[in-house]
Design brief:
Layout lengths: L1 H8 L4 H22 L3 H20 L3 H6 L6 H18 L6 H31 L4 E3 L15 H4 L2 H6 L2 H14 L3 H21 L12 H15 L3 E5 L6 H5 L2 H5 L5 E5 L2 H5 L8 E3 L3 H6 L7 E4 L7 H4 L5 E4 L20 E4 L2 H10 L8 E3 L21 E5 L14 H13 L6 E4 L10 H22 L8 H22 L7 H7 L4 H20 L7 E2 L7 H7 L2 E4 L3 H6 L6 E4 L6 H7 L7 E3 L6 H9 L7 H12 L6 H28 L27
Parallel strand pairs: 2-3, 2-5, 3-4, 5-6, 6-7, 7-8, 9-10, 9-12, 10-11, 12-13, 13-14
Antiparallel strand pairs: 1-4
Helix pairs in contact: 2-3, 2-5, 3-5, 5-6, 6-9, 6-10, 9-10, 18-19, 20-22
Length: 699
């Protein structure tokens, strides 16, 4: 029942639900205490509403955000509490006392202070918001960007000034209880003085040297940096906060390009969620500002998503435009008709090319290039189970999805059968269970199955540790755990980071320390090795959280059981045996026909009876009937192993850049030769365009 209430109220935990209930009940209790009247009861109810409200705001509760939509926002809740306090004074027959009029005057004046406070906060934020935000771009040597105001002034500013009424509320309640106006007027004075000081503290940050340069100066500095850096290949991205992973997955590839890379983002929220990178990044929310940037040296633009804002860069003819997507699968998004607008579409392997041919959405075969999947480079190719080590099988089911389709996940119908057969296998194998992080968020059946599987794996691990045949090298584990502690301490030191203040300061100071960046990458690799060394190689484990990463689990496993998802497509890069569950029970042939990635898999029904075939392939690779099929499927989906994916990718970038150069040279020769009047000026980047700064312009 509690879990149902949590989902309905859209709160994140039972604690949030309890706080929400207390806050909602607190206000009727305040009114009741005012009408009775009872000062202690009013004080208790007020304390509950203050604390519950503060807790929900600290948690960024969805429920609190929704209250403002029904005219029960933060300011209204504080005003109601203050009005009920005035009612309490009236019911206590204090309406003719000075404290009564003092309370009314205090709250009116207090709300009068909130108008200039809100205006100043908004003005400061707007003046400090530059037309572009950057990372790894040297703006500091070109323009002066002042430090941000102290975090305490702007962070949760509305909540902070409203809570200054606590002094007045407490003082008035004490005055009413002891029948002396002194505490009341002291509290009133404290509230008004502190409120006025808060407003005055904001004033210096709206003028003079406390604000960044004007938009034109910032844009000129960005252009000056671009002219010096001369980017050649751009990764362009626009999307929501939840789609940040789509650009993050390409950052390492951009770092490995042979040409000078640049990342262009269109939303500030994406910049805030961007993974650490050494590649220069420019976030340009305004369409006109983007079209005015000097991108004349760019020859190749890469697009990770099909979105409307792509048009602001697609209109530039001096560069070639490529759709690279954010994953290669049989989903409809992989053959979007929008792809016709690009000069080329790059796929991982032959499968992507065939997918467009079958879909017949207007993308010509000549415009498709196969470049592999550079992101899969960390996945190691299987060489068989090392001598002396027990085989490891990874169970990595996907989540239940939004539509209730039983074929989405194997957890509910097959998960327990799979894990039971694995933990009781003879000869034994080690089981790693890594569930999808969204598991159980929609379906309570999936959540319950996950809990049962977790308990089964953990119970089996405890049982195995008591058997004498499973030994532990205590000294080696102790060394590995000590190494883990050392690495984690160093990572915390390197990544803890200082508060960059705001977006303007982050742009000024956001030049990555390459040595530190490389050390963090090396330490994460060392952490992974130490983690696996710190546990016995026969111990069953439930792996959750960000670390170890999925690809790390691939590398320590010898086989995998999963569901239809990108996990399967990625695992194919390892060449290891794998099984996929047909939870919807389509039948093996139909299941393979509908899903290319399972054509070299052991197909399991919900009983998981065919799991023995997977284990046999792991124990005796020479007798593996699907080994050849997996190799062929890997090449079909992901392309050849040689040249490497990054070499193929760099080759494709270079070839397309040459096409852009050829096209641009041809246009210049036509103009020099006095050919037809070709109006290129308006299409060239770097030329100032009339239009609104919010991105509205003719396209």
């Amino acid at each position: 029942m509690i879990s149902t209430a949590i989902r309905v109220a859209r709160v994140g935990s039972a604690a949030e639900l309890a706080a929400a209930v207390l806050m909602m009940l607190g206000f009727p209790c305040l009114m009741l205490a005012a009408l009775v009247p009872s000062v202690p009861a009013f004080a208790a109810a007020a304390a509950v509403t203050y604390l519950a409200d503060h807790f929900l705001h600290r948690r960024n509760s969805y429920l609190v955000n929704r209250l403002s939509k029904v005219r029960a926002g933060l300011s209204i809740r504080f005003l109601i509490r203050q009005l009920l306090l005035v009612l309490l004074l009236a019911r206590l027959s204090l309406a003719d006392d000075l404290i009564y009029y003092g309370a009314i005057a205090c709250f009116i004046a207090f709300y009068g202070l909130q108008a200039p406070h809100g205006a100043l906060v908004t003005l400061i934020r707007n003046r400090r918001r530059m037309p572009v935000a950057t990372r790894n771009v040297d703006l500091a040597s070109r323009i002066r960007i002042p430090d941000a105001p102290p975090r305490g002034l702007l962070h949760r500013s509305a909540e902070k000034i409203l809570h200054l009424d606590l002094f007045a509320v407490i003082g008035i309640l004490v005055a009413a209880q002891i029948d002396s106006p002194v505490p009341g007027f002291a509290g009133i004075a404290a509230t008004l003085v502190l409120g006025a000081l808060y407003v005055l503290a904001l004033v210096p940050y709206v003028r003079g040297r406390k604000i960044p340069p004007k938009a034109d100066d910032v844009l000129a500095a960005a252009d000056d940096w671009l002219a010096e850096y001369r980017p050649e290949t751009v990764l362009y991205f626009s999307g929501s906060k939840d789609s940040a992973y789509q650009v993050n997955m390409w950052l390492e590839t951009m770092e490995q390009l042979d040409t000078r890379p640049l990342v262009i983002l269109r939303e500030r929220v994406i910049l805030q969620n961007l993974a650490p990178t050494t590649v220069p990044v420019i976030c340009v929310p305004g369409g006109v500002h983007l079209m005015n940037l000097d991108l004349s040296n760019v020859r190749v633009a890469l697009y990770a998503a099909n979105v409307g804002k792509n048009i602001h860069l697609l209109r530039v003819p001096t560069m070639k435009h490529v759709f690279i997507g954010h994953g290669d699968s049989d989903k409809l998004a992989s053959v979007n008709p929008y792809s016709k607008v690009y000069d080329e579409v790059w796929t991982a392997g032959r499968a992507g090319r065939d997918r467009y041919a079958i879909a017949d959405v207007g993308v010509r075969d000549d415009d498709i290039a196969e470049v592999g999947r550079p992101q899969l480079a960390p996945i190691r190719t299987w060489q068989g189970v090392p001598d002396g080590r027990m085989p490891t099988v990874l169970y990595a089911p996907t989540w239940e999805g939004w539509d209730g389709n039983p074929g989405n996940t194997s957890l509910v119908l097959a998960g327990e059968n799979i894990v039971k057969k694995l933990v009781t296998a003879d000869p034994p194998v080690r089981v790693l269970y890594k569930p999808h992080p969204f598991t159980g968020t929609v379906s309570k059946e999936a959540g319950a199955a996950h809990q049962r599987i977790t308990a089964l794996v953990e119970k089996s691990a405890v049982s195995r540790s008591t058997e004498s045949r499973f030994t532990v090298d205590t000294a080696a584990q102790a060394r590995a755990k000590a190494e883990l502690t050392r690495i984690e301490a160093r990572l915390a030191e390197l990544t803890g980071g200082s508060d960059k203040g705001d977006e303007a300061v982050a742009s000024r100071d956001g030049v990555v320390d390459v040595q530190k960046h490389e050390e963090v990458a090396r330490l994460r690799t060392e952490w992974n090795a130490a983690y696996w060394a710190s546990v016995p190689d026969w111990e069953h484990r439930v792996v959750t959280g960000a670390e170890p990463r999925l690809y790390d689990c691939f590398n320590v496993s010898d086989a995998m059981v999963s569901d239809i998802s990108s996990v399967v497509s990625d695992f194919i890069a390892s060449g290891k045996p794998y099984a996929v569950t047909d939870s919807a029970e389509l039948g093996a042939e139909e299941f393979k026909r509908q899903n290319t990635a399972v054509r070299a898999a052991v197909i399991l029904d919900n009983s998981a009876d065919a799991l023995g075939g997977l284990l046999d392939a792991v124990r005796d690779p020479a007798a593996d009937p699907l080994a050849k099929d997996r190799g062929e499927l890997k090449r079909y989906l992901l392309g050849p192993d040689e040249p490497t994916s990054i070499e193929q990718f760099n080759g494709a970038v270079a070839a397309l850049a040459r096409k852009a150069e050829t096209r641009n040279a041809g246009q210049e020769s036509r103009i020099v030769a006095g050919g037809p009047d070709v109006e290129l000026a308006d299409a060239l980047p770097g030329r100032r365009t009339n239009g609104d700064a919010d991105g509205t312009a003719a396209v």
